[in-house]
Specification:
This protein is mainly beta. The chain has 4 helices and 15 strands. The chain is globular. The protein starts with a helix and ends with a strand. The N terminus is likely disordered.
């Protein structure tokens, strides 16, 4: 494709009206895609022609094109509920089945699947997902972001998105992890986290095992707030799906509804709370476990 573009530009310089016997308006139509590529914004992380500040999805075009997480014979890029083989009914008619719809029973709250990330482009991964000090970094591998047990003397590995992926009023993050448990540990998705490092106002959803107790709930800073007891995962390696939703009407710092939902092989539960939201960006932390983020879907309400 790059070779074709170069040839087209050279011929244009020599006078492609003469070479191809084309009228000027016809040539303009042919050159339009080339001109569009040349004029693409400089601050365009995923190279889709949209400036990052207005781009609703920082992900490469190849994400989900040839993958099918739920084996329903629909590629993830076209699957409105990519984790659910049975999407469920759609009573609010927003094209999201009940199994993945953040608001399945509220007709006035139509959601959309805004972004799917399958991490197929390593350069984009490395630019978009950055380390949050002082924790160890997550690695980028084809098709996943990977947190491995941290170096000696450390237990935490964290990554924070370089540019906000939050919607204006309602945002749901639906993360699918493959988890290898060797001992006590946890996974946290931070809906709002300070990129500079752990802060008392950080807000998210945490799945944690300590001794014989496994819990899931809303976490603020280092403290686990409203939570519920879960059955322990039955096998060492399991898939864990964590959904965190924030609804804010008054801007940053205002009180908001917060919902954390988890689905594993042995459980499916929801914990809700209402908290003041800090400024911050989406982030993830793994404590001692090996954690592979296989996909992240972002829903919002336009």
């Amino acid at each position: 494709m790059r070779g074709s573009v170069a040839v087209a530009l050279v011929l244009s310089t020599l006078g492609c009206d003469t070479v191809f016997q084309l009228e000027r308006d016809e040539e303009a139509d042919i050159d339009a895609p080339i001109d569009e590529a040349i004029d693409a914004p400089l601050n365009d992380l995923d190279r889709d022609g949209m400036p990052d500040e207005t781009d609703l999805c920082h992900a490469p075009i190849d994400d989900g094109v040839a993958t099918d997480i739920d084996d329903d014979d629909v590629f993830d890029a076209s699957d409105m509920c990519p984790y659910d083989r049975d999407n469920g009914l759609d009573p609010d008619e927003d094209m999201l089945g009940n199994n993945c719809d953040p608001y399945p029973d509220l007709p006035g709250n139509k959601d959309r699947r805004r972004c799917l990330m399958r991490f197929s482009d390593l350069p984009i991964n490395s630019m978009l997902w950055q380390v949050r000090p002082p924790d160890a970094p997550w690695a980028s591998e084809p098709g996943m972001l990977l947190a491995t047990p941290a170096p000696a003397g450390m237990t935490l590995a964290s990554t924070v998105v370089a540019q906000s992926i939050e919607g204006a009023n309602v945002t749901t993050y639906d993360a699918l992890f493959q988890v290898t448990q060797a001992s006590d540990g946890s996974i946290t998705i931070w809906m709002r986290a300070d990129p500079a490092g752990p802060a008392s106002g950080d807000l998210g959803c945490r799945f944690v095992t300590v001794g014989a107790a496994t819990r899931f709930g809303v976490v603020r800073g280092a403290a686990l707030g409203p939570s519920m007891i879960l059955p322990a995962l039955p096998i060492e390696q399991s898939y864990v799906r964590i959904r965190g939703r924030i609804t804010t009407a008054g801007g940053l710092g205002s009180t908001a509804s917060v919902r954390c939902q988890i689905t594993t092989d042995v459980s499916d539960l929801t914990v809700s709370s209402s908290l003041a939201l800090p400024a911050g960006r989406f982030a993830m932390t793994a404590d001692r476990w090996r954690v592979e983020l296989r996909a992240l879907v972002v829903f919002d309400q336009p």
